[in-house]
Amino acid sequence: MTVEGRETLYRAIRDAVMDEITAHGIELVQEQDHDLLVPVSVSARHIHLEQKHAEILFGKNYTFTKHRDISQPGQYSCMEQVTIVGPKSQMERVRIVAPLRKQTQIEISKTDAIKLGVNPPVRHSGDLKGSAPLTVIGPKGNVDLLEGCIIADRHIHMSPADAKRFGVVNHQKVKVEIDGEKGGLMYGVTIRVSDRYALDMHIDTDDANAFGIKGQEYLTLIK
Amino acid sequence: MTVEGRETLYRAIRDAVMDEITAHGIELVQEQDHDLLVPVSVSARHIHLEQKHAEILFGKNYTFTKHRDISQPGQYSCMEQVTIVGPKSQMERVRIVAPLRKQTQIEISKTDAIKLGVNPPVRHSGDLKGSAPLTVIGPKGNVDLLEGCIIADRHIHMSPADAKRFGVVNHQKVKVEIDGEKGGLMYGVTIRVSDRYALDMHIDTDDANAFGIKGQEYLTLIK
Asked: What are the TM regions of this chain, as residue ranges (chains A, B) (predicted)?
């Protein structure tokens, strides 16, 4: 059989099978929905501070005030805000997310990065080696970061029980499907498993705005 | 057969067919690659003016100066820029794209829309009924648009010859695949066929930044 003939045959078989599956699709989707859906939260630009930098920016023994809880247990945004400064521009009112971390980390979108004039890599939280430099201005002082600015990768937090239920493992890359007039599939979504995590997908504002996601939606995990 | 049994059966058949197709995938992709790739351009926020508004903003008989050609024959961005004003903020230095059109049209991203405080619909170019209001400020006057602001849909311009080659028709919705660390599939990409069009996909800055697209890349059209 020629390559063209084989291709035509496979496509015909695939289409026939797909039609058959689709014909029973509503039933299947209804049966499976609760297993495949993941709530999503949109992360605006924010900063996690290390102890030393918190002291420089806000003064010794400063206590941060909770603004509101975020989707992960024990994590919260603070009333306090800082200004971040890049070579091209600066952005004010960047929220601090507590509690303090080992190393200061700034998470921005590519849109922010272009405006600020920096070129941060797409990274997991905490993986900061060689990430972009940026200056942070607080009420009591400034910090020039040599590294620490990233574009957070698309990721899904979940408990070990959720991971078992979804049939995925820590660090696995999955796809996530979004409905709507700007729908699509996100590739390269990282599974992050910990017993400290609640089930929630985190995306930045670029992904949210490109796909028409407001947050609070349920998206479909595809392995 | 139970619903569960049928589901298991269909999934097994689908997976077997997919495996079979995948086993021949490299051969098929190599055969088809040159037919499936589409160059992409990123549209920053811009405005098309109608005659009446051009006169109010720039004065009677004003002649616009070409900044540079854009990807569609006869279309060009101008040296002249305007300010657009929404309820929450304004944006300066918004490029005019010539020649003049029947109705003034402003194309912005969702990120821009949130910042400006407007809620434009996702639309084809020219489909402006009930689209968002916005104010435009030029050097000679202001225009309060009751409608005209949209988020342009993802679309691919092509000639009738290209459409034949790709096996698609005008207004057809296709998918486009993007590689890279923020890769994925865009759904709902509209095919637009005209003998005035050069082959080019147009996306806004949100889609570009979400998918890590700079422009000039070749993306894969999937029917």
From this structure: none
